[in-house]
Design brief:
CATH superfamily of the largest domain: Vaccinia Virus protein VP39
Strand order of the largest sheet: 8-7-6-9-10-12-11
CATH architecture of the largest domain: 3-Layer(aba) Sandwich
Strand content: 15-25%
CATH class of the largest domain: Alpha Beta
Largest sheet: 7 strands, mixed
Number of domains: 2
Oligomer: single chain
Length: 385
């Protein structure tokens, strides 16, 4: 193997040319040699690391380069690179255009279903490669440094059930129930009658099998239905990791619907990702909107509280889950990397790379406080104020 090395600057970054079987690849060593970038198919590494975060992410997903070593350091490196003000303007306009496109489909159930299926219907086997056995796709609750993800996810479910004060015979609705972990757990451990709604066919299949395998068909049901079309009245309602799909402009209708479904004095637990005040849309926002969560939008905590109160729901308890979510994302990244070969076989190279990048970047944003994760417990007022 022959190597040519050229120093780029004083930060210990190096550009190398390495002859490999089947051709040669360009190799870039990051600061402190914590990571390395290998450019493929004749790509110019000089151009790769001069790209903005969005373009670099697209290049990574398309297989123009690979990352060896610490993926978190690589993401920090690419997101911190200076780029032109013209490029900043283009990204800002692109994000706004994407939002206008989303707003144009606000009332469309079909568009909402398509967006959900774009993310979740990648194959249950793919999600099994990095989630726990119950397929929990939200922040676990870690009570000790060495706690396994499987155990921490059960602790999360127990905590939700306790804060909802679930009792035998209660009726529970889980809006955006995912693979059914909460409704199954609540029925088994707390004796409730539970209903879950999802728009994902793959999630419905997994949840239905879990319900049947545990003999809970008489107490638990999961349906494919938009939450706006759910009918009935419930003692308790949960929404875990779902309202990120709702967005700013749909929050009033979201909370109004919850209020209609909740019995007077009932409890509603709303848990999910939020955006820190002062954080603006950027290249990462555009990547997520285009490649990960089409139609999704993070809102501020103040928006959640205000719209909940406007709908007649009183916030009575709040828990910050940001650090728990950051660790959860790091556990998922580790599992993805450990099962990389299976992930590529099941879902394809592009999907594997997209989720690896998305989850690693999410961990960093949560650790840095740019993204938050909060659980708010509401109570429905018995009478209007």
């Amino acid at each position: 193997m022959s190597t040519q090395t050229k120093h780029l600057d004083s930060t210990d970054e190096m550009l190398c040319t390495i002859d490999e079987p089947g051709g040669h690849a360009n190799f870039f060593c990051g600061p402190g040699a914590k990571f390395a970038v290998i450019a493929h198919n004749g790509s110019d590494p000089q151009k790769l690391f001069e790209q903005d975060a969005y373009s670099a992410a697209q290049s990574f997903v398309q297989g123009q380069f690979s990352i060896r070593g610490d993926i978190y350091e690589a993401i920090r490196f690419f997101t911190s690179r200076p780029h032109s003000r013209l490029r900043d303007l283009w990204i800002t306009l692109a994000v706004r255009f994407e939002r206008v496109n989303v707003l144009a489909h606000l009332g469309s159930r079909d568009a909402a279903a398509d967006n959900i299926r774009f993310h979740y219907d990648r194959s249950n086997d793919f999600y099994r490669q990095f989630l726990d056995s119950r397929m929990q796709y939200s922040a676990a609750h870690f009570s000790r440094p060495d706690q396994p993800l499987e155990e921490a996810q059960i602790d999360k479910l127990d905590g939700i059930c306790r804060r909802l004060n679930l009792r035998s015979g209660d009726t529970l609705l889980d809006i955006g129930c995912g693979w059914g972990g909460l409704v199954v757990h609540a029925a088994e451990r707390y004796g409730v009658r539970a209903r879950g709604c999802t728009l994902s066919r793959d999630q419905l299949k997994f949840a239905t099998e879990a319900i049947r395998n545990r003999g809970l068909e008489h107490r638990v049901a999961v349906d494919i239905v938009d939450y706006r079309d759910v009918t009935g009245r419930f003692d308790k309602i949960a929404s875990v990791g779902m309202f990120e799909h709702v967005g700013q402009h749909r929050l009033p209708g979201y909370f109004k619907k919850v209020n209609e479904l909740l019995k007077p004095g009932g409890l509603f637990l709303n848990r999910g990702l939020i955006r820190a005040e002062g954080v603006e849309d950027d290249a990462e926002t555009l990547f997520i909107q285009k490649s990960v969560f089409p139609g999704g939008e993070l809102v501020h905590l103040a928006d959640v509280i205000r719209e909940g109160e406007n709908a007649g729901l009183e916030p009575i308890e709040m828990h910050d889950t940001r650090k728990h979510y950051a660790r959860t994302c790091r556990d998922w990244v580790t599992r993805l990397q450990q099962n990389a070969k299976a992930c590529r076989t099941i879902a394809g190279e592009a999907t594997y790379r997209t989720w690896l990048l998305y989850l690693a970047a999410s961990a960093l944003n949560l650790e840095d406080g740019c993204t938050g994760s909060t659980e708010v417990l509401f109570e429905k007022r018995a009478a209007a104020c």
